Amino acid sequence: MSKKRRTHGKNRIRPRVRITCDGRIALGPGKVELLELLHATGSIARAAKRMDMSYMRAWMLIRTMNSCFKVRW
Prior knowledge:
Layout: E1 19-21, E2 24-27, H1 29-41, H2 44-50, H3 55-68
Antiparallel strand pairs: 1-2
Helix pairs in contact: 1-2, 2-3
C-alpha cells in the first residue's frame, strides 16, 4: 500500500473515500491502487507483489469488488 509522505511540518488534508456494499468495503484507496497496478502490469500476481500482498489477498479484494458492482436487476 502507499507509504506515508513526509509533510515537513506542513499540515495537509487528505480525504479518503470508501464505498460500502452490504457491510463490505466495495472500493477504497487500497482497492483503487490495486486496480491501477493491475492495469499497469496486466497481472494480479505482479500488482499484488508491488503492493507487498499475497496473490490470494489481491484475488479476494477483486472478487469483493466484482460482487459489489455486479449489475442487479
